[in-house]
Structures are given as C-alpha cells and as structure tokens.
Amino acid sequence: MSGNTFTPRNPVSPLDPDRLRREQFAWMNAGDTIYMNAASTGPSPQCSVDAQIDFVRRRAMPQTVGFDDQFGILDKCRTLISGMTNADVSEIALAINTGAGINLAAWGLPLGVGDEVVVSDGEFPANMYPWLAAAQSRGFTVHVVPLRNGVLDEDALVAALHRPGVRALSVSWAGFASGIVADLDRLSAECRKRDVFLVVDAIQALPALPLDLARTRIDVLACGGQKWLLSPWGTGFTYVRRDIFRMLTPQPVSWMGVRDSDDFRRLVDYDLTWRDNARRYEQVTLAYQDFAGMAASLELLRDLGIANVATHIHQSAQQLLQGAREKDIETVSRIERHAGIASVRPADAAVTGARLERAGIIHSVREGTIRLAPHCYTTADDIARTLDAL
Ligand SMILES: Cc1ncc(COP(=O)(O)O)c(C=O)c1O
Fold it and tell me: Relative to the CA of 123, which ligand 1 atom is closest?
C-alpha cells in the first residue's frame, strides 16, 4: 500500500459518531442540519470552544496568563502535530494559515533567474498567487501544467519535472474542488531523483489520509488548521524538512526566530543566528487563544485515534461517492483514491445545490461540482439523507 493512498484497516469504523456528537458537537443532534462542509470550515468541538473561552477570559487579566501558559500552548500544538505527521517536532513551525507556508517556500527557497517552479492549473489560489508574485520579484518562472478532463494530470506534472531549470514542484495533496488525491510517494520519488524541492498544500487531506513525514520526503508542507483539523481560523502549521533549513531563508523575519530570543534580558544584544529548529520560520507573536483551541482539537483527534478518524472519514466519503454513482450522478473524486472530499457533478449543480440546502445539508459548490465533506461526527443517517437529497 502506498503511504498516501488509504485502505481502511478496519472494515467497520470503531468511532462512535453518536457519542462524539453528544459530547462535542451537540448542535448536530439538536436540529435538522447535516454538516457536510469540513472542506470549507471544520466545526469546533466543544473542548476547543471551552479552551478558547477559558484562555480569552484569563487574558482579560494578562497577569493571570504566564509565559509558561503562552509558550506551553504552542509547544503542545507542535508536539501534537509532530505526532500526527511523524515529523520531528523540531521541523514544525506554527503558522496562521496554509498560505504562510506556501509564501515561505516561494520567497525563501533558493530560486532565481533561470529557475522554474511547476504547479498545476486549477490549484487553490493560496498555492498559485504566492508563486506568481515571488516569480515577478525574484526572476524565476512558473510553469502551469494544464488540467486533464478538468482535474489534476499527475502524469503531466511528473513529465514537467524534466523541463530544464525546474527546481520546485508545488501541489495540493487533495484538490479543493475535485478532491483528487495526488500520489505524494510518487511525486516525492520523482522530485528526489531530479533534486527538485517538493512543496505540498495538505489542508484538504490531513488527517483524512495518513501522513508519515519520516518516510515520505517532502521539503515544505503547509496546512491550515481551520478545516479538517477542526481548529480555529488563524491556526495552522508549516513543516520544513530539517535538511533544507540551510537553504530556506526565513521570510518574513520574526524577532523570536533567532537563537537567543528566549532570554528577555538580552533582547538588544542583536545576533542574527537562527534557531536550530523550525521555529526560525514562526511569526511571533501568535494568537495564543486560537492555538489553545487548536491544541484541544488536536488532542481530541489524537484521543479518538488518527487512524480511526481517517477510516471514518474515508468510509463516509466512499459511501457518498458510491451512492452517487448508483444514482448515475458523475463522481469527480476518485472512488479508488480519495480523502474526505466527495465531489460529484449532477446534471445541474445549482438545482441540486438548492435542493440540498432545502434539506438542511450544508455543502459547497466549487467549480461546478457539489462538494460534500463528512468528518468524524458523520452518521449513517447523515449519509442516507444526503444521498436522498442528491
Ligand atoms: C487547497 C487549499 N489550500 C488553501 C486553502 C486556504 O488557504 P489559507 O489557509 O491560507 O486560508 C484552501 C481553502 O480555503 C484550500 O482548499
């Protein structure tokens, strides 16, 4: 099995979504709304809401929030992210969104005149504009690989790596509209062969797909917390492979990116020596109250078991795709390789979208597809009602 194509280990998900809803997502049992929109915004579990409120309350009297509280929250997030991705904790920089990590790569990698960066057409703009803007300033070029039948053409992406001057490939692990999953193992091997930096936007795939960064070589991986990680807006992380620290210049520069910045007695003894971990790439001061929420959400996911969460999401998306196909509705996400996004293209997406809305099914319409995005709280009844409304 490829590390990035997911075959559920358990035939039946061991998650108990009913119990999870009672404890963490009570509103889902209270009305008729079915939330199929984690690809847009992940709902906050109660533990995350409580952690944020508690932090904000204490923040009213800043003297009750010590440095240990503030930095402890950030440490906790980095540790939980490292556990989820099997990256070393020293390779995790907290970030406010996905774009922060893509921008870091676009402006910080050693790229200049004569170099080329490969991206696919149809990428979410967070993985396009930073490259286009940095190319204008820094003199490298961006080669945009056309889509095939409206979705990512992975073979063409690999073929483009042979172009002269290619130094980096930047790709979404799962496409925001199609849900098409890129084979990271394959892209990683191809990039490695040619000494090309691999940059990944993981926001639409993690943790619906398992990730082992100690095994799959990726140079920079950017992930916002606001969708599948069920974390607050303004949270996220950037993974940077330790071996490229030397080559990736911190951009922009934070006053706590340097080695001795923890010693507040010597702040003006300026010494531009970067920290020896990925915190050199963090933009301090971060919003501690938001990361308090992220820590709680990530702890919940860890306690549920990342593999269990992934299995449950995967099975739910699979059932949606299979059900749609049985109704002769075109499936855009691949049944044989998908993450949590189940994208379908009915004959008239606007009419179907309106029908789903009337049925209380929260979803998105993207690029002419209906995008359904179940998560750990999705029940069999949610899936049946969604398929009925389709
Ligand atoms: C693939 C992809 N990347 C990035 C983003 C968002 O970027 P950011 O976290 O910078 O807001 C989205 C959706 O909003 C997305 O679907």
Answer: 1
Query: Ligand 1 pocket check: which of 121, 201, 290, 343 to mutate, most ligand atoms within 8 Å of Cβ?
Result: 201
What are the tens digits of pLDDT across the range 50-99? Answer: 999 999 999 999 999 999 999 999 999 999 999 999 999 999 999 999 99
Note whether 386 and 356 are within 8 A (CB).
Answer: yes
Q: Report the alpha-carbon distance of residue 186 to residue 209 in Å, rounded.
A: 15
Pocket of ligand 1 from Cβ distances under 6 Å:
97-99, 124, 126-127, 172, 176, 201, 203-204, 224, 236
Structural domains of the chain, ranges and CATH numbers in brackets: 17-45+305-389 (3.90.1150.10), 52-302 (3.40.640.10)
b/e per residue, 233-267, with b = 16+ CB within 10 A?
ebbbbbbbbeebbeebebeeebeebbeebeeeeee
The tens digit of pLDDT for each residue in 177-203 reads 999 999 999 999 999 999 999 999 999
Q: Check: CB of residue 297 under 8 Å from CB of residue 284.
A: no
Q: How far apart are CA 87 and CA 91, in angstroms?
A: 7
- Of 347, 356, 308, the closest CA to residue 37 belongs to 356
203 C-alpha to ligand 1 centroid (Å): 6
For residue 354, the tally of other CB atoms under 10 A from its CB is 12
Residue for token pair 């293209």: 345
Q: Report the nearest-CA residue for atom 16 of ligand 1.
A: 176
Helices 349-358, 380-389: inter-axial angle, 10-degree rounding: 130
